[in-house]
Request: fold
Amino acid sequence: MGNRIYWTAASSSNLNEDLILAKWQSIHIINVHVGHSTLFPSCQHDDLEERERHKKLLKPGSKVYEKLQDIVNSRQMKKDILMLSYVQQTSELGALHSVVNHFAPKIICFSFH
Reply:
């Protein structure tokens, strides 16, 4: 889901909010790659490789699928998606901080002498 959030923002360089939401809501968790909406009718990825075709996906109507659909379509999530920047994301910065914290944890003091 995290990759999907970043992709939605990064691939939407225009400020068409309807298109941004259409991309977000086109998440295919039940192996549906077409018919998402009129603004974003099909996925942009190439044909799936063999191993990708056999990934386990959610079953339509299952409890997990319904819960995830509720989250994806929630008013708060839509509001948050529209606030994402298409120019810069902070995932690389987060990765850098993770590496720094691993090798120089804040609970250990280092001397410069």
About this structure: The chain has one domain: 2-87. The first helix runs from residue 2 to 10. The chain is about 50% helix and 0% strand.
